[in-house]
User: What shape does this take?
Amino acid sequence: MANTKKIIGQSIAIEELRDLIDIIGPSESTVLILGDSGTGKELVARALHESSSRAEGPFIPVNCGAIPRELLESELFGHRKGSFTGAITDRKGRFELANKGTLFLDEIGDMPIDLQVKLLRVLQERQIDPVGSLLSVPIDVRVLAATHKNIVSLMEQSLFREDLYYRLNVMPIEIKALCERNDDIPILFDFFAQQHTVSGQKPITLHKLSMELLLQYQWPGNVRELDNLVDRYSALYPGQEVDLRKVIPSMVPPGIRALINGGSDADDLSDVTETLNSRLAAEVAGSTEELSDSEQVERYANAHLNNEVEQTILLAQGGGPFPEEGLQLKQHLLDIERNLIRHALSSAEGNVSKTARMLNLQRTTLIEKINKHGLADSA
Assistant: This one.
């Protein structure tokens, strides 16, 4: 069985991943691991190696995107003394070092096209040609490859060989992004908190509302970003409960800061929106006798628009169900922009320069937007 204990999580996606490693690991098949940066592709590769009959052999990782193109061939296949300037001795490449074990080719999508041809030949013939050598060297290596790139798109751009793709993609494994399995976030947080415990202190904990923020955050850096974040707070607040609302802003990811500033409690947001809607309806109903028919129509239209904008903002913050009929995203965003500019102009008493400062816009940009939204009369 594979050593999958290091693959932390309780989501269905992680359970399925562990099961797949248990099945694929003992085989000799080549595996292509797909997933965004920071999802743990090397961790999966090590688990596959440890579950195989090669577990006692070497596990040799190589990042194809981190080695300069002119050195990558020598790194992979080795070289012979005198084969190029600086080659003062024979040197084994990663394939030879991985003999009787596993070679993990990370970021295979970054491999130059000419080296892809040589790699394909190695996979087919199971022998390598060190740089400067006239003799081929037989190798016994299981190859695992990984990339965060869209290989199909690379093939369409002639940046990745189709025949190599099919040679590598015998057993594909896809790792879900962290934002697609947020059930794993609490258990990952606790795991990393234990790992980064400062000597003599208890692991950090997280305020309840702060955990809600982590669950809403999109995690562009995936598990690696969460690990780094827990490491940061373990150093800043050893043994303490961390409340992200009280953390120095520069120590909080911008995306989480936006959630904090925008409000993260859906129930509170719902209450606020309901109050605004009620007040808006009351204003419309209470003023109909004093307004002409055309003024009543305009007031109602504006009230309806404000209500839609508020509902859109609430929806964007996860505070309500998505409408079954869908929505016009572009138009809603334009409506939100128009209302914000109109409100800022009103607060600035029509002063364009002051309004631009309030909205953190260049004056010329604001003027363009005022004209686009037909708000010149408000300026």
Summary: Residues 194 and 203 are 5 Å apart (CA to CA). Residues 265-321 form one domain.
